[in-house]
């Protein structure tokens, strides 16, 4: 079905996972794919650089067309396969507007999560400060309260932009899954916990669940235990 | 024409400028608007918080619909006013794919510019490091070479995704304009210089040129002189 598509990806990376969920939702299974290792620096290999001069995953090709940015792939596939699989942009104006708003807030959400989880990866040893770590955690806390409030307002069983699963869920769910993998408390954030429970059972999400999470179901659960 | 729209904005801010260009391109002039001052912290005023709990500009309302994220506003307006003003998403598959790719690379581009220009604004005094400043400048240099290469490949007179002006230009041009405002050398980056010269003459861009740039045509031209 999707033999003319190639995806190079890394396990657990939210940008890669977005694309994988998207391909499942649009019934584009059967694409060529290769799991690469960030630890072994395979995202800087020639194979990746040939598609993606930034040396990043995901790297995605459809025939001769290259789209590597995860949000870009989502928009591209929804546009090219509008009438195939799940319709991911609602016609309803209010829902559509909310979807766009949440999608792009989702980038800030991911940045704030990454600033806490990957602090030591991003910041060289001699430049680390306890004050920055504290500020990043406080910013994440503020961010989490925003999303908890959004879900609260929409009511039980809702997706991020209303009653249907949309592009907002495709791009934001991998961030939410990483939060719980790294020990976020569903007691403290019950609406995010419910949302996580709802979407993780979705076939597209189950089919693309990070393989190293399956092998090792417990993550670094101490990382976010005090957030 | 667009009396049911309200935009709260700040002068020179790329996210605000994107929305202003978008409104011009879609022939939505006549909207309610209010210029607020970042220096006076007016983006944290109740007036903004009522629309945007993040206390950020732009803050945008269309009737009862709120979309504050600049990329979200662009997608929303293009979808709602598809047949009005400039068509900003090309039908051609290759151009459309390139547009999506460049739009989202545009976020990285802006982040790398901001990390250099606003370093002292973002990083508290006790956490600043020469090594970080140097790394940020090198990252910006690498980023600029990528965009210079993209434009080189497309040829003279091209927009970011090919022969027509698209959403990619709406969102990325304000970043490019800031680069030159802060002293980027058009000798060193001639293709970016040409692109800047092309798009700054566009009516939508002229109509939305930052008022404090008009008052004070010289920016902090030393900031990027050695990039």
From TrEMBL, chains A, B:
GO terms for molecular function: glutathione transferase activity; maleylacetoacetate isomerase activity. Residues 92-227 form the GST C-terminal domain. Residues 3-85 form the GST N-terminal domain. It holds the Pfam family GST_N_3. GO terms for biological process: glutathione metabolic process; L-phenylalanine catabolic process. SUPFAM superfamilies: GST C-terminal domain-like (SSF47616), Thioredoxin-like (SSF52833). One of its GO terms (cellular component) is mitochondrion. PANTHER family: MALEYLACETOACETATE ISOMERASE (PTHR42673:SF4). This is Glutathione S-transferase rho. The lineage of its organism: Eukaryota, Metazoa, Chordata, Craniata, Vertebrata.
């Amino acid at each position: 079905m999707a033999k003319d598509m190639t995806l190079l990806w890394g396990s657990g990376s939210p940008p890669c996972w977005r694309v994988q969920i998207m391909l499942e939702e649009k019934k584009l299974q059967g694409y060529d794919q290769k799991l690469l290792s960030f630890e072994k620096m395979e995202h800087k290999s020639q194979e990746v650089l040939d598609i993606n001069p930034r040396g990043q995953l995901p790297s995605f090709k459809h025939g001769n067309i290259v789209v590597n940015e995860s949000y870009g792939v989502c928009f591209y596939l929804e546009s090219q396969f509008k009438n195939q699989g799940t319709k991911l942009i609602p016609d309803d104006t209010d829902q559509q507007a909310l979807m766009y708003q949440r999608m792009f807030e989702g980038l800030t959400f991911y940045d704030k999560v990454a600033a806490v989880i990957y602090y030591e990866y991003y910041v060289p040893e001699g430049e680390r400060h306890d004050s920055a770590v504290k500020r990043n955690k406080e910013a994440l806390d503020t961010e989490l309260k925003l999303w908890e409030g959004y879900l609260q307002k929409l009511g039980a069983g809702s997706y991020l932009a209303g009653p249907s699963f949309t592009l907002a869920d495709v791009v934001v769910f991998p961030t939410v899954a990483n939060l719980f993998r790294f020990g976020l408390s569903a007691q403290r954030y019950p609406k995010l916990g419910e949302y996580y429970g709802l979407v993780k059972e979705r076939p597209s999400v189950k089919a693309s669940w990070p393989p190293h999470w399956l092998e090792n179901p417990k993550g670094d659960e101490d990382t976010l235990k005090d957030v």
